[in-house]
Specification:
4-stranded parallel sheet, 2 domains, alpha/beta, Spore Coat Polysaccharide Biosynthesis Protein SpsA, Chain A, 4 strands, single chain
Length: 235
């Protein structure tokens, strides 16, 4: 057993060196990571990838306020990730909910480690409670997720594959707007992959049907070109 572990460790170290050499050879502008994408694709084809990826633990910060039902669906979707649940920590950061969220969290047994923090309600302070969640996170890699955003089955893996070889990378995605009633616990628990086939709809609150990030991606060749992002209260 020890011999096999030693061989696996040597293979992993060799793979990391090969990827770094590949990146050095195919250097591109500062925010152009297409060379890394190609390196990851080659690793995945040769089935080397899991030996590094599965060693990485991640904390997912989910701020919430009076969204117990939406939060339950989001957590249910996280429980069906194709990433090892033992490597996932969920930090629920509550901005003073009064809908029974705390009672539900404390009474529920989850499939991954859970931390729950709550601050008193003094207006809209989602940025503050998110930062409080970051303070108690156990792991150096963190994913920020909203309480009403149900992740697809490969959500965590899609983030973590970029952290497999780099310690200074930030990953950003986008969201798809759907009708809440189309997202049921039955769908999540029986066929999580069906999330991707739910039809899009308009976001009536924002008056848009496509996430604003997609327009930025299209205008900047997926952020390879410099662009100005609007101010946000997320960080």
């Amino acid at each position: 057993m020890l011999a096999m572990q030693w061989v696996k460790a040597m293979q992993t170290a060799t793979l990391v060196r090969r990827v770094k050499r590949f990146l050095d050879k195919h250097a591109r502008p500062p925010n152009d990571w297409s060379s890394l994408a190609e390196a990851l694709r080659l690793c995945e084809e040769k089935r080397y990838f899991e030996s590094i990826l599965w060693q990485k633990a991640v904390s997912i910060i989910v701020p919430t306020y009076n969204k117990k039902l939406a939060l339950q669906k989001t957590i249910a979707a996280l429980a069906h990730q194709d990433y090892p649940l033992s490597a996932i920590e969920l930090v629920i950061a509550d901005d003073g909910s009064a809908d029974g969220t705390e009672d539900w969290v404390r009474a529920t047994e989850f499939l991954f480690n859970i931390k729950y923090i709550k601050q008193q309600k003094h207006g809209y302070r989602v940025a503050k409670v998110r930062n409080e969640g970051l303070k108690v996170a156990s792991h150096g890699i963190v994913i920020l997720l909203d309480a009403d955003m149900a992740p697809t089955h490969n959500f965590v893996t899609s983030h973590m594959r970029w952290h497999a070889f780099l310690n200074n990378v930030a990953v950003i995605g986008h969201r798809k707007y759907i009708e809440p009633e189309n997202l049921t616990f039955e769908l999540i628990n029986q066929n999580i992959r069906a999330l991707e086939s739910i039809p899009e709809t308009d976001n009536r609150k924002l008056g848009i049907s496509t996430d604003w990030r997609i327009r930025r991606y299209n205008a900047t060749m997926f952020l390879r070109w410099q662009c100005e992002f609007p101010q946000t209260n997320c960080f």
